[in-house]
Amino acid sequence: MIKERLAELVEEASDGALTAPEALSATVPLSALGLTSVGQMRLIDAIETEFGVEVDLTEQGLELLDDLDRLATHLAAR
């Protein structure tokens, strides 16, 4: 359920350039599929608002944004 919601947030953050089904089925980093740095910042804002967490802006934290499975696991563990 978290992963599906994250995919919807990716679609919103990318203004539809990357659809939720594309994000869910991604086998490469989301940035390779077109999630731009602006989209990442919008996604961070959406995740922080929706899940009440603070996204770590270090390289390691930003890498989570490229992989929905890792991101969903990380959020579920909080």
From TrEMBL:
Check the record and name the Pfam families matching this protein. PP-binding
Q: Mind telling me which InterPro entries this protein's record contains?
A: ACP-like_sf, PP-bd_ACP
Domain Carrier, by residue range, is 1-78
User: Which SUPFAM superfamilies would you find in this protein's record?
Assistant: ACP-like (SSF47336)
**Superkingdom of the organism of origin:** Bacteria
Output this protein's name: Acyl carrier protein
Q: What is the lineage of its organism?
A: Bacteria, Bacillati, Actinomycetota, Actinomycetes, Streptosporangiales
